[in-house]
Amino acid sequence: KPENIIISYGTDGNLEPYLTDFDLAYHETNRTMTANFGVGGVLNYAAPEQLYEPNAKTARSETVDVFSLGQLMFFLITGRDPNPEN
C-alpha cells in the first residue's frame, strides 16, 4: 500500500524510495524472528490467491508481490483505489 513507501534523500541528494512493513518482527527476549504468513495488510493490494487460498504455496510466492506492485502502480498513476467496490 502507498503508506508503506518512504521517500528519503540518498547520499547523492536524489530521492530514493524505501519499502517498509514486511510483517517481520524481532523478538528481543527470545532473540528470534517472527513472520506473518497469513493474510494481512490492505485487501485492495492483496493478490487473489492470498484471499482465496491463503494456505497454498502460491499465496507466499514472489507472484503475490508482483500483483501488489501492480496494484500500487495503478494507484500511483491514476490516484484511484485499484478495487473501489471490493
From TrEMBL:
A Pfam short name: Pkinase
InterPro entries with a match to the protein in the record: Kinase-like_dom_sf, Prot_kinase_dom
Domain Protein kinase: 1-86
Superkingdom in the source lineage: Bacteria
GO molecular function: ATP binding; protein kinase activity
Protein name (record): Protein kinase domain-containing protein
Species name: Streptomyces sp. SID7499
